[in-house]
Amino acid sequence: MMNKYGSLEVFFTYPSDTDKVIELVTNIQGLKQWNVGTAVLAPISIKVTSTKDGSDPVFIQVQTLINDVVVDQSDFSTYNTTETTFSIRIFFFDAFVSVNLNNKWIYSYAFAQIEYDEGNITAAVKLHGATTTITNLRRVELADGREAVYVDYESNTENGIQSIIQQRPILVQPAVGRALSFTYQAERDTINAVYVGRYTERHTLPSSLSSDGLIYGNDVSVSIDLETARDVGFITRLYRLPELTTGANAAAATLQKRARETMVQATVEARLDPRVMLSDVLNLDLIVKGTNRHIEKQVIVENIQIGLRDGEASMTITGRTKT
Question: Same domain for 198 and 299?
Answer without folding.
Answer: yes
